[in-house]
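Below sits our specimen:

——
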Amino acid sequence: MNLRLSPGSVRVRLSRSELDVLLTTGEISAGTRLAPHHEFTYRVTLDDNAPELLLDTTDEGIQLRLSTTHARELAARLPSKEGIEAQQHNDRGNLLSVSLEVDLHSKQHARS
């Protein structure tokens, strides 16, 4: 799983095998060790109460939530470069673009 942060946008890109794990287990996560006792964690979880795509912060990092229906629709469209994109307001009222994509060329192994 890859995470890209830029001003005004957050993008998560999964490999096909990571999408399969998400659909099977309901969650996929990865992390980056930032300091000896802190790992920044980013996770994608299935949440049928979530809108199409919703980004939340956690004590450890960030969490991207989407419904099982939207995750299955994304998988059914493969192979396609089309992901899921949503806009949400941040705490300052500015729009934040949030996207979830599947990298069909990735050789990454899934980790839940």
